Amino acid sequence: MSGVRDQPALVTGAGSEAGIGFATARLLALQGARVAITSTTKRIFDRLAELPGDRGRHIAFATDLTLPDAAEGLVEAVRRSFGRIDIVVNNAGMTQLGRRETSSPFHRISDVEWAYKLEINLNTAFRVTRAVLPQMIRRRYGRIVQVASVTGPLVSNPHSAGYGAAKAAMVGMSRALALEVAGKGITVNAVAPGWIATASSTKQEITAGNNTPIGRSGTAEEVAHVALFLASKAASYVTGQMIVVDGGNSIQEYKGPPEGYY
User: What's the rounded Cα separation, in Å, for the pair 139 and 210?
Assistant: First the structure.
């Protein structure tokens, strides 16, 4: 693939060994990028040891990006280590290790729950993107990839209003930014995963994945390959787009067992 070799990349939310963030970081490293990874806990240093390539080529930070000043500090630390940042993959979101998640029906969502859903799923990406943009604009090059979701922009589930609102807003934010920086050599795109098998997948989520047209949940690496393309020089004429990775689930009207219809 044309264009990530020796490019400095920052991938957030890469702490889970089975997650989309680490899968993306691993593919970037395999293609020759220098990769900075972050998550909220020290397990990120275990992921760092698992990245392919020479020791010292990649770096890791334990950072809570829900803290207002954390993004600026993270981006500056990566810039000091790598000299610049060419690629950002904003994957942080959905859950935080060690924090109990709540998903309330709409009429019972508290202001605290609503604000937290927006903070972890939208504001983290906003702040990291805002922090990295000035250097990309100066160099007239950059690839920004937001890991959104089909939940919100295309479909939804009960008790998902906060998460869905945040992910839909992430796509809207990306499109607006794509217009602002299109003439500056910077592309901004979103990947929208559907049912993806990760370490936190529930029994119900696996069942839902089995009822997609492809007949299974997706893998983190399948999402990562799309993110890798959007992060590459080869994607130079793709911007402001949302690429769906859901095994065709969002295009089917009937979502029961396939033998009942197909």
Answer: 45
